[in-house]
Amino acid sequence: MNPSAVSFWIETLVAVLLVFSGAFALVGAVGLLRMRSFFLRLHASALTNTIGAWGVTLASIVYFSVLEARLAIHVWAIIILLALTVPIATVLIARTALFRQRRQAGNDVPSPLGGNRPSSL
Fold it and tell me: Contact 50/89 with Cβ under 8 angstroms?
């Protein structure tokens, strides 16, 4: 189908979703600059970039579904991969930073959850 055949309202919806996701990416960038600790920076960027990715994915689904006159399922692969990998990577990066701070004896680091466990079960 010709891209000029897409309705004005669909293009407007896609533009709003793209601006929405761009605004969240901008908020994430400002959060990286303004937050003081590594963990706050990690939290701000992970949340805002994930929401931004959802906006781009929804805009792609709407546009290509209308353009091809059928539901565009292939775009879902992007957001499914992001939904699986971003939280896992965020947790692994946060754990690495937490263990590094514990090794350097930082005062603002919480103690391990396990604490001293009894040796007998």
Answer: no
Is the pLDDT at 110 greater than 70? The verdict is no
Return the higher-pLDDT residue of 115 and 81: 81
Residue 7 — φ and ψ, nearest 5°? -70, 155
Whether 68 is in a domain gets the answer yes
38-68 helix and 76-103 helix, angle to the nearest 10 degrees:
170
- High-pLDDT (> 90) share of the chain, %: 21
Residue with tokens 């692994």: 92
Task: Please give the residue range of the domain that contains residue 80.
Answer: 8-103
2 within a domain of the structure (yes/no):
no
**Distance from the Cα of residue 103 to its chain's centroid:** 29
Give the DSSP per-residue string, 6-38.
Answer: S-HHHHHHHHHHHHHHHHHHHHHHHHHHH--SH
Q: Is residue 99 part of a domain?
A: yes
